[in-house]
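Question thread 4412

I'm putting together a teaching handout and wanted feedback from people who do this every day. The idea is simple: show students a protein as raw sequence, then show them the structure tokens that encode its fold, then repeat with a second protein so they can compare. Below is the first pair exactly as I plan to print it.
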Amino acid sequence: MSAIITAKNLFKKYGDLTAVDGISFEIQEGECFGFLGPNGAGKTSTIKMIHCVSPVTAGTLTVDGLPAHIDNRILKKKTGVIPQEITLDIDLTVRENLMVFSRFFDIPKRVARERIDGLLKFVELEAKRDSKIDQLSTGMKRRLLIARALLNEPRIIIADEPTTGLDPQARHLIWQRLRQLKSQGATLILTTQYMEEAQQLCDRIVIMYQGKILKEGVPSRLIEEEIGREVAEIRIAADQDEALIARLGGFSCGHERAGDTLFFYCRDGQNLWRKLIELDLPNTVHRPATLEDVFLKLTGRSLIE
């Protein structure tokens, strides 16, 4: 694979605020690349520069070999955006929303009608084609946004938190559709606050914090490197930590206190788990390590406003 998007020492400033602070990355053609981070980490600012709606303050950013800037209409035609906000015209039907949007790309009416029929089938909204937007569920609206993003047959698809507020069934359906697009050769760029979503979809991710990239890599490898394979959560009073750590110190596990819970991170937690059973501690959970553990370890567990 070759890089379709390259950023070098990229900055984005809003007055005195530095939203993106000198980051560098490459996104390979045909992969799903995820931007993860808490609110205010710089994810959306980076995404907006990639799809040419926000100017680069400093550094270089190229998309498909062309410089990314707000006047680059060629790049905008190659990109489809699934926005975080539901930006649909409530006065129009499902089909009318798509027809109006097709005009922004100068798609002939006959071609637009054919594409719309195919896309409504793709997102399973054929039966809703003549429904007004306020007659759709949130999940249906999000699927319609996917169809709208595909009208111009983009090479690059940007999905900005595409499943926010959805129930599990709708979320899994959108995951299936995004994986299908990737299998057809599209390059996907994803921002999400759902760690399971990133594990399901992304080939590689970056974790951002305060405008910088903390880590980059394959999700499964980051979990192995930063956490291990297994996690034990033990809800005990903090004044008992030292004694418990001393009793479990022979199992080569890292540990961390967060709130009312002591976390142990282990590469092989079976022996640890047997010891915990022997100790018969209440309120103990033993589970596989996840990307969320990595995220919280790197960005902290405090609430970020």
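The second pair follows. I'd like the answer to focus on this one:
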Amino acid sequence: MIACYGLTGGIGSGKSTVAKLFESKGARIVDTDVISHDLTAANGLALPAIRQEFGDTFIGQDGALDRDRMRTLVFSDRAALHRLQAILHPMILEQAKSCANTPTGAPYTLVVVPLLFESGRYRDWLSGVIVVDCPEELQIARTLQRSALDEPTVRAIMAQQLDRGSRLRQADETILNDGSLMQLEHRVCEMHKRLAGC
């Protein structure tokens, strides 16, 4: 099996941008956010368990998880967050491993996991973990710019994630994303060369 690395970082750090840059260099990307969305879309594999645990009010008119309602609940109720994670995290991990184990011509696989350290489920099968890092005020500014979330909500999300210092201490590799896209692409290119053995 080819080497498999985790890619993580706080909200607004630029994980998606970094993942796209790695993909453009030839890495295979397995995105757990995409897996999570599939699991909670209409007819998603996680919906029966979510419906049983939380009730019909958390399933939208379209048959998918009502994300806004669920987000409101889990930000105000930590026990509810853990109940949701207990349903989703094992299913996401199983599908991520399955995707990472399929044959590929890529030199390595990057598994993008927003809550990689928090979940405690990934380190044992990854060759290493790359953290995308930037100052916290930049995280907030970027998230406000790209989403409909307000600042208190963004700060609440950040409060539920590992703090910046703890993430950096657990990182095997770090990509600083505090400048231009050109700077970021250069940093990704240099790391890709090392990971791919170029």
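Top answer:
Good format. For the second protein you could add a caption like this: The mean pLDDT is 92. Strands lie at 4-8, 28-31, 109-112, 128-133, 173-176.
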